[in-house]
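Researcher: Structure prediction, please.
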Amino acid sequence: MELLWAIGRTAGVIGGGLLLNCIRSMFGNHAGAFGTSDQAHAAGSVGRSDVAQKDRDQDQDQDQDDQEQEDQDQDQDQDQDDEGGDFGGDDTDNA
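Model: Predicted structure follows.
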């Protein structure tokens, strides 16, 4: 008899927990069956935001490297122009 009472009590606790979770989800707190999903979601969001921040940092570093390379190329082009290595422009002699 005690076994049946214990089984009934356990079923009542589990059923009550499920009912409580259903009521919570109706009010917007989307809890899982064995705990709140808000905690797991928050931990996952932090991980994703860290990865996104690293990607943004890498993109910014790459953009900076590209800009430095472009500046170097422009400086070299200017040096060639100053030395008469310009392949475009007019054919007049400035002597």
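Model: The CA atoms of residues 10 and 29 lie 25 Å apart.
Researcher: Thanks, that helps.
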